[in-house]
């Protein structure tokens, strides 16, 4: 039978793959935002969602493999067409009516069931599209049907477009209700495209256009399949590892996670294009050259680099590593008879990479160590030169000798930091030596891995880190530093960090142990507020959203009731341990600490309970968006007394959070003041900080506005952004231009 026009058939299948991938990447962040007000900002929620998405993706690839290998073309088209039509019953996508998570119980199974009921079938259908439609294309008799893998580039292009369009175009301009409707319309269009593709398969009259190969050539060895698995697993793990590493060790800039994912998808597009045969050798060579400055300046001696240069080094190294892995993966693609198995292994590897980084790594490591480990493994997967993979023992001899020598050196000296310059120079010279081993992947990777490991060990020794632990909420650490007193003597103090952002500090001497510091200092906005209301706040009930090191509780009076809402149990353990911080034990030992998402916890409190509520909940350098919406502010004021005060900490290097609060203040007709405080004199550990205070009535804040304790100003007015709600937020709209 006559086939569809060759150009039209390519455009049809490419467009279907493009739309399917775009819809998949749009659905994930959209449903994450829908669930946020119900379940809060706990990373366990996101982890559960990711497990659901990865599992359904794997099941979709398994379905495509089973259908394409067990059914003929006609039965495939009829079965999948029926599934596609059945999935239309799930439209428009939305959360089930009158949805409510189980109170006081683990919501994991409830969340999985909710996702399955709401989007399970549509997500399953889009998950099947990439392998199944490429398999169909291989059977329609097109002149490129024997190698349809280039269509995978169209799929990844759709993913890339969706990735970039959601935070920059869709989220700032379209509310969630319209997003759900638009997605549903797009999905209906995708179903139509899939049905047309099935029709093309039926009328083509072809079952396969591939030349029949000898039976033994059609078999896949276990070695080949494991090789595919590793080449897909390592980039998947590297992607998540680098994303965590950037936010933890480089800079907690909002939306920075987009960069690694963009690079990751771009490498897929390039690797599965017709240019891969020329790109792979070039990328392999460039990787061995770039590895030298990467090790030398990203790990051995990063202190002299600005954060953006540090970021560029890591992203470029990630690009070369993933490009080499994906380039080999594309080069090793099998004949079309094994196409669905090939994609099934790739999806399984991606799922394993996500599970390893999400679940295993936080329990195995107290830092983002899976990232340098996967950097090393990626180097092992380089294509071997003429020297090949043989002679394993001689290849690992130099790295093993260096590792033993380094460990002996660290154990025989009192302070490795005294020899930092000599150590750094030695490791830099060894980094140059890696180039000589570039054709021997095992030795090459081993030497690079040992250098990176020894360099990280030196930096850990020099950081004076008292505690570093990692949970699903990120990496928290307590460090000991010193300042110079007025008498010119050094004095130790402790700092709390989440990632790269300081969350509090405490001086250790008896005279200053109860003195709030950093963003909570007595000269600063919170010190001014407590001083102004000192005469009549003895019986106040005070709430804090976000504990940190606990400095705010040192404004407590014996008659007051203090309640603290904290998401991360590790932060509570640190703040309650006098070996690290003693604010809680010294200033408010009776304060009640409630663990969990603050917005969900506050729902359980009676109306009108608080006289003062302070929101100081930061995830690294940003307040979670669901704590800054119109619904969140309405909840806060429901829990405040009629003359109660809401104080919000809005210090941020990258986002103008005051803009959100100003617009909401106008919308809800609240009185509000802001102070962007800068210390007038050099006081140890007193820093610049910005706070906003709000009340239902202007008279509540009048005395603070008229006091001479600080420069409280009316909030500036903004008219270029809609109010944030649970339906609409706009991170791009509050980005500081100086960032």
Structure, described:
The protein has 739 residues and is an alpha/beta fold. Among the domains are: 1-96 and 108-207, Growth Hormone, Chain: A, CATH 1.20.1250; 392-465; 511-734, 3-Layer(aba) Sandwich (Rossmann fold), CATH 3.40.50. The chain is 55% helix and 11% strand. The protein contains 22 helices and twelve strands. The chain has helices spanning 6-39, 43-70, 73-87, 108-137, 151-173, 176-204, 222-250, 258-271, 276-300, 307-331, 339-364, 370-380, 392-412, 420-433, 441-462, 525-532, 569-576, 583-587, 598-603, 630-639, 657-668, 698-706; strands spanning 465-471, 474-484, 490-498, 501-507, 541-545, 561-566, 592-595, 610-615, 640-649, 671-677, 689-695, 713-714. The strands form two sheets. Strands 7-6-5-8-9-11-10-12 form an eight-stranded mixed β-sheet, with helices on both faces. A hairpin with a 2-residue loop joins strand 3 (490-498) and strand 4.
């Amino acid at each position: 039978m006559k086939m569809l026009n060759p150009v039209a058939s390519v455009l049809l299948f490419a467009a279907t793959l493009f739309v399917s991938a775009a819809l998949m990447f749009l659905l994930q962040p959209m449903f994450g935002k829908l669930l946020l007000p119900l379940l809060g900002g706990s990373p366990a929620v996101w982890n559960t969602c990711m497990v659901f998405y990865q599992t359904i993706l794997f099941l979709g690839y398994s379905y495509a493999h089973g259908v394409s290998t067990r059914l003929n073309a006609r039965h495939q088209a009829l079965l999948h067409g029926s599934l596609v039509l059945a999935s239309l019953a799930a439209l428009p996508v939305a959360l089930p009516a009158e949805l409510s998570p189980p109170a006081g119980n683990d919501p994991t199974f409830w969340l999985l069931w909710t996702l399955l009921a709401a989007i399970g079938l549509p997500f399953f259908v889009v998950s099947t599209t990439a392998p199944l439609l490429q398999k169909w294309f291989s059977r329609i008799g097109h002149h490129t049907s024997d190698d349809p893998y280039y269509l995978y580039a169209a799929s990844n292009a759709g993913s890339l477009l969706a990735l970039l369009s959601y935070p920059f175009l869709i989220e700032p301009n379209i509310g969630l209700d319209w997003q759900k409707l638009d997605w549903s319309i797009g999905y209906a269009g995708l179903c139509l495209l899939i049905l047309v593709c099935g029709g093309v398969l039926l009328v083509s009259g072809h079952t396969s256009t591939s030349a029949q190969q000898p039976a033994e050539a059609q078999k896949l060895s276990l070695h080949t399949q494991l090789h595919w698995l590793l080449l897909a697993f390592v980039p998947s793990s590297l992607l998540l590892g680098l994303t965590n590493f950037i936010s933890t060790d480089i800079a907690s800039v909002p939306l920075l996670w987009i960069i690694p994912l963009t690079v990751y998808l771009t490498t897929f597009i390039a690797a599965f294009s017709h240019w891969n045969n020329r790109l792979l050798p070039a990328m392999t060579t460039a990787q061995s050259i770039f590895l030298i400055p990467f090790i030398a300046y990203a790990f051995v001696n990063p202190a002299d680099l600005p954060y953006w240069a540090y970021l560029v080094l890591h992203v470029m190294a990630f690009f070369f590593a993933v490009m080499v892995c994906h380039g080999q993966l594309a080069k090793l693609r099998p004949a079309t008879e094994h196409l669905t198995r090939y994609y099934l292994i790739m999806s399984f590897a991606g799922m394993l990479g996500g599970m390893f980084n999400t679940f295993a790594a936080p329990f195995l490591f107290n830092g983002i160590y899976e990232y340098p480990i996967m950097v090393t493994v990626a180097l092992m997967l380089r294509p071997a030169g003429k020297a090949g993979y043989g002679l394993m023992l001689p290849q690992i001899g130099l790295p093993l000798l260096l590792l033993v020598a380094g460990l002996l050196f660290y154990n025989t000296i009192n302070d490795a930091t005294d020899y930092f310059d000599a150590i750094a120079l030695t490791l830099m010279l060894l980094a140059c030596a890696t180039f000589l081993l570039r054709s021997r992947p095992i030795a090459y990777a081993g030497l690079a891995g040992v250098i990176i490991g020894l360099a990280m060990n030196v930096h850990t020794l020099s950081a004076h880190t008292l505690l570093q632990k990692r949970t699903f909420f990120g990496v928290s650490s307590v460090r000991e530093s010193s300042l110079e007193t007025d008498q010119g003597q050094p004095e130790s103090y402790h700092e709390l960090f989440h990632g790269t952002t300081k969350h509090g500090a405490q001086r250790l001497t008896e005279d200053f142990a109860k003195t709030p510091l950093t963003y909570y200092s007595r000269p600063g906005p919170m010190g001014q507020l407590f001083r102004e209301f000192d005469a009549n706040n003895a019986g106040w009930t005070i709430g804090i959203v976000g504990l940190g090191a606990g400095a705010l509780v040192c404004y407590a009076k014996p008659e007051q009731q203090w309640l603290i809402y904290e998401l991360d149990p590790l932060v509570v353990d640190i703040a309650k341990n006098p070996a690290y911080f003693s604010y809680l034990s010294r200033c408010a030992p009776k304060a009640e600490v409630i663990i969990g998402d603050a917005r969900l916890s506050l729902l359980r409190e009676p109306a009108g309970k608080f006289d003062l509520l302070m929101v100081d909940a930061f995830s690294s350098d940003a307040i979670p968006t669901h704590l800054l919406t119109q619904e969140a502010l309405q909840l806060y004021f429901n829990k405040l007394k009629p003359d109660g005060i809401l104080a919000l900490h809005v210090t941020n290097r990258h986002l103008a959070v005051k803009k959100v609060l100003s617009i909401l203040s106008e919308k809800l007709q609240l009185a509000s003041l802001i102070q962007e405080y800068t210390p007038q004199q050099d006081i140890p550990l007193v820093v610049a900080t910005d706070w906003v205070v709000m009340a239902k009535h202007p008279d509540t804040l009048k005395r603070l506005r008229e006091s001479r304790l600080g420069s409280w100003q009316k909030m500036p007015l903004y008219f270029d952004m809609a109010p944030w709600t649970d339906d609409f937020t706009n991170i791009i709209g509050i980005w500081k231009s100086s960032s």
